[in-house]
């Protein structure tokens, strides 16, 4: 593959409304738009870490550092014939999955464009449309959550995920079931806020027919989750605990979950995400694509990945207007039908980047060329 330049642009974009989880309230999104240029095409990706290491250990700053110090120089120093080579190239460097993914995903987009195909096609995805859900944060009151659920159900979203934390859990789920009925496809995400000592409460949640409960226990645990899964009929879904294909193998072997949330950033890129998808499929474990409040470029990557056939549960890839007043891509990501997004058929991610919008939110920029790095 021809790779002539890598550009990093850090953007800070205000959210339409604050988004709160058990560990953090976000009011804006800070990320790096990575572009990889070669052969007259440009591949794009977004970094997904937060500004403080509360979801995982990475931050926007650590990603910038990893990219400029190790990952971009390594990419320029190597011969890449396929994006799968990028994850092999980065494998000896420990962790830093979100940094690796930011560059690897941009290479995937460039590859698809250079090959004259869509990213979904390059990944082997067959679906023409995908079913999607929406993630609802913790709100100042249960009533606020109910208002959000009402709005997103009206927009047709096919899965409602609500964030819970100790003190804001049973009451919320009960109120949603009472107001909207037993048929609403509902799940809860605890972002690691509980421990096995909360078993009585988690067992109470079991009566509400949730599609799943996501990451109830510690961010680095798969043992206690296996113990908990044996006590619950509600499927457990792992998010924070799954970083590598080996984590998936162990979680399946132990019975730590029945569903896995695949986030491309958390697992180090599209090649690894696809491997996890395939392994889960072999074991009859359904997967869905999680989100990190991405803008359009990240959403487009998630859509392409979700076109693989074991993504059978609607993911968190909602439309652009869920979080953003203005998009950096054209067209913005819109529902093609209630609760459905179309998988683009155009080249690469299938959305174009509006440089003017990027500049509006840009706070830092750097460009890297093989010639300057190795001069
Ligand atoms: O809409 C999205 O992109 C999903 C948002 C969401 O639920 C999450 C984003 C970032 C970190 C977490 O709080 C969380 C998750 O755990 O899935
Ligand atoms: Mg989660």
TrEMBL record:
Entry binding sites for Mg(2+): 189, 214, 239
First-tier enzyme category under EC: lyase
Catalyses which reaction(s): (1R,6R)-6-hydroxy-2-succinyl-cyclohexa-2,4-diene-1-carboxylate = 2-succinylbenzoate + H2O
UniProt feature coiled coil, ranges: none
Domain Mandelate racemase/muconate lactonizing enzyme C-terminal positions: 142-235
Pathway: Quinol/quinone metabolism; menaquinone biosynthesis; Quinol/quinone metabolism; 1,4-dihydroxy-2-naphthoate biosynthesis; 1,4-dihydroxy-2-naphthoate from chorismate: step 4/7
CDD domains, per database record: NAAAR
UniProt entry keywords in alphabetical sequence: Lyase, Magnesium, Menaquinone biosynthesis, Metal-binding
Active site: 163, 263
Keyword Acetylation: no
BP terms from Gene Ontology: menaquinone biosynthetic process
Magnesium is among the record's keywords: yes
Family to which the UniProt record says this protein belongs: Belongs to the mandelate racemase/muconate lactonizing enzyme family. MenC type 2 subfamily.
Protein name: o-succinylbenzoate synthase
Organism per entry: Brevibacillus fluminis
Protein encoded by which gene: menC
């Amino acid at each position: 593959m021809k790779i002539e330049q890598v550009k990093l642009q850090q953007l800070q974009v205000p959210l339409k409304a604050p988004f709160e989880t058990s560990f953090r309230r976000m009011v804006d999104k800070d990320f790096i738009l990575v572009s990889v240029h070669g052969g007259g095409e440009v591949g794009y990706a977004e970094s997904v870490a937060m500004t403080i290491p509360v979801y995982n250990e990475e931050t926007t700053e650590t990603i910038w550092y990893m990219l400029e110090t190790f990952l971009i120089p390594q990419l320029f120093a190597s011969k890449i014939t396929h994006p799968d080579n990028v994850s092999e190239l980065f494998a000896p460097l420990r962790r830093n999955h979100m940094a690796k993914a930011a560059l690897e995903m941009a290479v995937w987009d460039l590859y698809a464009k250079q090959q004259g195909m869509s990213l979904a096609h390059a990944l082997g995805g067959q679906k023409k449309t995908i079913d999607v859900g929406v993630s609802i944060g913790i709100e100042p009151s249960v009533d606020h959550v109910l208002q959000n659920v009402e709005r997103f159900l009206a927009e047709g979203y096919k899965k409602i995920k609500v964030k819970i934390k100790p003190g804001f859990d049973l009451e919320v789920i009960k109120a949603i079931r009472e107001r909207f009925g037993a048929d609403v496809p509902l799940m809860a995400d605890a972002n690691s806020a509980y421990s096995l000592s909360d078993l009585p409460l988690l067992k109470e949640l079991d009566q509400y027919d949730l599609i799943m409960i996501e990451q109830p226990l510690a961010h680095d645990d798969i043992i206690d989750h296996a113990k908990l899964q044996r006590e619950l009929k509600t499927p457990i879904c792992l998010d924070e605990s799954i970083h590598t294909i080996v984590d998936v193998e162990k979680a399946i072997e132990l019975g730590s979950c029945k569903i896995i949330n695949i986030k491309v950033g958390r697992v180090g890129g599209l090649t690894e995400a696809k491997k996890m998808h395939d392994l889960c499929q072999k074991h009859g474990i359904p997967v869905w694509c999680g989100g990190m409040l991405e803008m359009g470029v990240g959403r487009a990557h998630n859509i392409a990945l979700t076109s693989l056939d074991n993504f059978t549960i609607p993911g968190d890839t909602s439309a652009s207007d869920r979080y953003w007043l203005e998009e950096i891509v054209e067209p913005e990501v819109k529902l093609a039908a209630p609760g459905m997004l179309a998988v683009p058929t155009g080249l690469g991610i299938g959305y174009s980047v509006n440089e003017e919008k990027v500049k509006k939110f840009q706070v830092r920029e750097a460009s890297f060329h093989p010639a300057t790095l190795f001069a």
